[in-house]
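README: folding subset

This subset contains proteins for which both the sequence and a predicted structure token string are available. Records are stored as plain text. Below is the entry for Pectin acetylesterase (416 residues), shown exactly as it appears on disk.
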Amino acid sequence: MKRLLIWVFSLFCVLGIGLSRSENGLEDLKAKESLLSYLEKDAVSPGANSLMVPLTLIQGAASKGAVCLDGTPPGYHLDPGFGSGANSWLIQLEGGGWCNNIRTCVFRKTTRRGSSKFMEKKINFTGILSNKPEENPDFYNWNRVKLRYCDGASFAGEGHDEVNKLYFRGQRIWSAGMEELMAKGMQNANQALLSGCSAGGLASILHCDEFKDLFPPSTKVKCLSDAGLFLDAANVAGSHTLRNMYGGVVTLQGVQKNLPSTCTSQMDPTSCFFPQNLIANIRTPMFLLNAAYDAWQVQESLIPNFADPHGEWRDCKMDHSHCNATQMKFLQDFRIQMLDAIDVFSKSNQNGLFINSCFAHCQSERQDTWYQSDSPRIENKAVAVSVGDWFFDRTAVKAIDCAYPCDSTCHNLIFK
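--- output ---
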């Protein structure tokens, strides 16, 4: 049965960090921060018995320049594996938008997305991070890690702004995190999965082959990107919102030097921050989990406020059931663009897909969409089962949903 997750928000909200053109800058950024948190994993409250895992700061990271935007040390949450999973590792890269200019990066320094001073001391492990077999059948007893996101460039930046005391050190945070985890036992892993959601999903694509190269050839290593398939798509006004945004991120944070040369040798750096231009050249097996009508992209990339000055799309973007035929065709065309973008990727036997026709975002960390009795399904197979079947080579998984409104299992997000 379709579940409607409703977020009541009094402000005229848009999603993400760094796309605002509002005069009320600070309040607008705070609103986006709150809504982004909701979108990623807070829409469904974890149960009373869910696992709480403490934050560990990476000692010595600062001496290597591996610091958050404000210069504080990065951190992670680790719940050790046990039993048959004692030598298996799952790394989840946290998401949380990007910052593409000084203003938005300075703001992020005052939040958990830019400073470990503001990170929660403990967080819930649910979905793919759960320690319960009934919630996470294939990975519950693995070593499960959440690497916190505090750089604003999908763990890929390298730079420094002395005037504003901003440190763009995402690549160093990634390296310091991996070095720390290898020393804590990951070097002995017999199997490992790098995953991530949203901006972390993009990071899992960017770092997939690097992750594989940490291990000997005998280690089974794969990657999962959840809601990370951000497209270079035109918005309702005909301009490319996300391309403009990514251009700022890449330039400001010095991302170019850390992008795959297989792409930068042929395309401009901004294009090489888009997953659609990277996925076909990744050597390591990868699974793409994405909603065909990704809620973040619908709200922030396709229908940002500035592209809809008269509010003609407002009702549609807040609740897809309010879209007229013309508007729905626009969204259907976006789905077709997504399917075109994964065409070459999908032909590789080693890769996996779960593209459901839902208005959702980040389906691996939330218990209701990862694995429950009424969680989303394609051909009666839940997300968790599909990912597990693919990782353990039980069966090939190339699940692509029929177009909206055919799927009655979606947990669609509706904004009021």
